[in-house]
Predict the 3D structure of the following.
Amino acid sequence: MDYLTAKEVASKWGITPRRVALLCSENRIDGAELIDKMWVIPRAAQKPGDRCTTRFESPADMPVKPFLKWVGGKSQILEDIRRKYPSGLGTTITKYAEPFVGGGAVLFDVLSRYKMKDVYISDINRELIQTYIVIRDNVTELIAYLKDIEQKYLSASDSVRKEIYYSERDRFNVLKLVGNESVEIATLFIFLNKTCFNGLYRVNSSGAFNVPQGSYKQPTICDERNLIAVSEKLHGALIVCADYQESRSFIDSNTFVYFDPPYRPLTATASFTSFAKNGFGDKEQAELATFVTEISGYGANIIASNSDPKNADGNDDFFDRLYAQNEIIRIYASRAINSIGSSRGKVSELLICNTSRRTL
């Protein structure tokens, strides 16, 4: 009989050698044999189906939540944002766009509450967008990979966990460098997000992910039920790695658009612009405001979030001037602001809404 190595089978089936070895150890590949600590598999062997099927069959109306931890995520201020959703959402307003999708808290709130005909999400973070695409198109295999790495990580000692984390971080950066679009890079993106320090996503000047390991005792790496539900909600969504201005062709008078750009830093030491190699400074904030004005002219319904400069300087009216033709609402969220000891805890943030629309 003609045999292949686990590495050769992995290439043939589009999965990792580690996944092939796991399938062999579970006796799920007919004819596989362990010879001198190496698995060999008959060339004619068929790739087994994944055990993680939709036993958690998610009803179409099942609420979903973000599958990532995300710095600046909007979960804690969703009630405030929700109050400004446009009337007619899901009926006369049938399209939703989120050009800085990040963790997608508002995206998943909208998709849990309303039936949207067309959905567009984008971000310049290529690995983030690839993870969304994998969840939409190949969630079953993703769950299998995540269960594998979750079992390996949670069953290990602290010292071995550290080795696993940094080994997987190195592997992620190798795949990131070559522009890999496999299920593996999506797996590593989620794994690192759930096990790194504070769920940060930060890259160095070379574009390599460099966040250290976190200290979580029992992180949930594979939330199977939610991932399946997220996959269902993303069915048919247009998911692209692109600058926010690429959303222009999607947006019209039937569209609700939510913008959550990188926040303007409140102090020189509070800046956190390393989600990608290129920053988002005052020039970029002004360009976004111009874009908001442009698509407001299409009749689109818009909400944008940003920091409130008045937390640090009561005379700083940067956004009040930029968005003078819009409604500006100050809401409160728990954020840690570097170098402003008096502002730790509840600080104000901005919701910017175009004024031509009615709210719920």
In short: The radius of gyration is 23 Å.
